[in-house]
């Protein structure tokens, strides 16, 4: 363990370094989608955009294909992952603050106090890393173990976004299927129907294609993109915490660790969001 040093006033990680959540943009997007649908439906008539048969074929077809393509556990994980879309990312600062506070206890060379403080840490990743530091594992071993945890996390968290991207590819296909079903029915009545009746049938058939396109590009694909962004942010935060764990293992003071964490979070924000 590093030699004890005088108690330091450890600077907190500035809130300006926070990776801002996507709640506001998600809400704006939802409001925009509602206004767009209202505008289109108001100009064309709400009845023209309603097709129960097409909706049943698109929704039912996508649901059945998804159940066949994925395991039930993967579907449940994807539903749980939806909460990440609107999750607040301020937890990164809380994890860093817990790390700095633990480092202050660790520098006193009190193993019992360090172990007790370790049980208060919420993040399993951070708790494991600091436990390895407490066990005095070599730095190379700590780095290898924690990088393996980050890799497993990335593999696990990419599955929900991949699922929604797959569904986004299915939706237009089932929209076309519903359109073909409608056109087949229209062609069957072609000899006994008027032009106006045929036009109405064709309009209803094409609405099914609209359902598939809208579901793919305004629901499932945006969800996949949001989940991919959330995964990228989480991995970036895990790497920042890993840097802090390694600095503590190398015997750096809590003050220097806090300063480095602030710089790392600033760099992460610039990489994810660009310069503001």
Q: SS-based structural class?
A: mainly alpha
Largest sheet: none
End-to-end separation = 40 Å
Report the principal-axis shape. elongated
The chain-level mean pLDDT equals 81
Question: Count the strands?
Answer: 0
Uncertain runs? 1-21
Please work out how many helical segments DSSP would assign: 9
The radius of gyration is: 27 Å
Which sequence of SSEs, written as H and E, runs from N to C?
Answer: HHHHHHHHH
Summary of the model, kept short:
With 276 residues, the protein is an all-alpha fold. The protein has two domains: 21-47; 51-273, no CATH class.
Outline the structure in words.
This protein is an all-alpha fold and 276 residues long. It folds into two domains: 21-47; 51-273, no CATH class. The protein is 76% helix and 0% strand. It is built from nine helices and no strands. Helix 4 runs parallel beside helix 8.
Question: What is the secondary structure topology, with strand pairs?
Answer:
Blueprint: H1 23-44, H2 52-69, H3 72-81, H4 91-106, H5 111-118, H6 124-134, H7 139-188, H8 195-249, H9 254-273
Helix pairs in contact: 2-7, 2-8, 3-7, 4-8, 4-9, 5-6, 6-7, 6-8, 7-8, 8-9
What key attributes describe this structure?
mainly alpha, elongated, 9 helices, 2 domains, 276 residues
């Amino acid at each position: 363990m590093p030699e004890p040093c005088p108690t330091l006033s450890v600077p907190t990680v500035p809130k300006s370094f926070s990776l801002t959540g996507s709640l506001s943009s998600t809400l704006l997007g939802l409001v925009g989608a509602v206004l767009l649908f209202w505008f289109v439906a108001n100009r064309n008539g709400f009845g023209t955009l309603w097709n129960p048969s097409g909706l049943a074929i698109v929704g039912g077809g996508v649901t059945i294909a998804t159940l066949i393509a994925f395991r039930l556990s993967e579907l449940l994980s994807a539903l749980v992952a939806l909460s990440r879309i609107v999750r607040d990312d301020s937890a990164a600062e809380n994890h860093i603050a817990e790390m700095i506070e633990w480092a202050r206890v660790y520098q006193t060379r009190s193993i019992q106090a360090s172990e007790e403080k370790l049980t208060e840490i919420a993040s399993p990743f951070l708790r494991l890393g600091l436990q390895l530091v407490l066990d005095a594992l070599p730095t190379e071993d700590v780095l290898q173990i924690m990088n393996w945890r980050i890799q497993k996390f990335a593999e696990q968290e990419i599955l929900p976004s991949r699922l929604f991207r797959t569904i986004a590819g299915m939706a237009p296909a089932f929209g076309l299927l519903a359109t073909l079903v409608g056109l087949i029915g229209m062609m069957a009545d072609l000899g006994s129907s008027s032009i106006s009746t045929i036009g109405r049938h064709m309009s209803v058939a094409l609405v099914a294609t609209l359902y598939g396109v809208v579901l793919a590009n305004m629901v499932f694909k945006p969800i996949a993109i949001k989940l991919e962004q959330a995964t990228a942010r989480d991995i970036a935060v895990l790497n920042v915490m890993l840097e802090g764990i390694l600095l503590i293992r190398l015997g750096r003071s809590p003050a220097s660790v806090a300063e480095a964490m602030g710089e790392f979070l600033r760099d992460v924000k610039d990489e994810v969001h660009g310069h503001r």
